[in-house]
Amino acid sequence: MGPSIPCKMSLLQLQILVTAVAIVQSFPASQTQLPARPTFLTNNHRNNNRHQRWVVSSALFSTIEESTKQSSSASAESEKYVIARGDGSSGGGGVPMKKNEQKQQQQEIEEEENDGLVRPKVGVPMPNGRPSWFRVPAPSADEKSRYQNVKESLKDLSLNTVCEEAQCPNIGECWNGGTGTIMLLGDTCTRGCMFCAVKTDGKPPEPDPFEPFKTAEAVTKWGVDYIVLTSVDRDDIPDGGSSHFATTVDLLKHANPSLLVECLVSDFQGDHDSVTTLAKSGLDVYAHNVETVERLQKFVRDRRAGYWQSLRTLEHAKKVTPDLYTKTSIMLGLGETDEEVIQAMRDLRSVDVDVVTFGQYLRPTEKHLSVVEYVTPEKFEHFKKVGEDMGFKYVASGPLVRSSYKAGEFYLTHMINKEREEETEKADVVENSS
What are φ and ψ of residue 181, in 5° steps? Predict the structure, then answer.
């Protein structure tokens, strides 16, 4: 009998790993449906199988390096699409509009041109120079800095961030603080919004089924108490990627139950079942951006998005999980009026949205919408006060504010934890008095 071979895994761990890998491999490469959440990750089995679930995730972490190499080699060049916009220009990406739709939309635009309101367009003159209030910390070049640590951990695990893909101006501040916003479901979007710098394609590469495990590993290394997960739009996936998000949230919460998780997601094409899947996953903040005021939706967002469709997804998330915090963001500087911004806030409060952020729109490239105006810090402060008076739990408003950024995460962490402590204390008082 030969010498025994040392093994770091128990027999149970090995059995579970083999089963999990077999499940992943059983999905053909051409299939766009993401793998269903394993039984031990569903809400019905959380309490009974917590130990078993973490054994699987720990074991699967050892396969991350191999899966990363496979996914990198499998990526191929894909055809890019161009979408015609409401102002008659072209840009962005996604699936092309039909000619009759383009003609009808252009006629509607021409009829509205006489109303005296401003609309954003591509290729028109921009305001001269950026104002003096646009100043952000530069990324650290020190190899031992937290910025470099975050950058290296993302690179090692082949994870994407919206910080890089969307060219966020706050990347230095956030990464220097030791955190970033992880972008799930790949780096290629199926829609072509005219403000966004993310790559677009009608048929993006298949999502990485190991991505939830990679994400949990990266966030655990960072040691943060609040993390934001976001994604591109994936209209090519039946559930829009909601189950992929739900699995990621579940793994993060198991690794660190006190971690606060915000998911900034698409509208899932208005599918309430997909919204429900994510809203009941255990996340803390359900975020979806309406992006701009109602009148400017068709100029700014992809034609498959919609103002009221976005509001209804936020409303439904709160309906199925009442203690969930809901959040949205609006860009300013695209030609909106003050009254339109205030009306948008009224609409958001009508569906009980808790948090709203306002930031200055910045054009990523010349192929995107031009900036109509640089909104002053005083105007941002005005909208913040109006929002607070309306009853929003938190309003972040400033030129460099973005949907997810470190200062906002710090405030939300404090607010959520404080409110939950107060609720626990009230429950204890009621229980003791009964």
Answer: -100, 115
- CB neighbour list of residue 6: distance below 8 Å, 6 or more residues apart: none
Assess contact for 320 and 291: CB atoms under 8 A.
no
d(CA 373, CA 247): 41
Q: Considering only CA atoms, which of 364, 355, 358 is closest in space to residue 332?
A: 358
Mean pLDDT, each 10-residue run in order, the chain (434 residues): 46 48 46 42 40 40 43 40 34 44 53 76 90 64 54 55 48 50 87 86 91 90 84 94 97 94 95 98 96 96 95 98 96 97 98 96 89 95 97 92 66 86 84 76
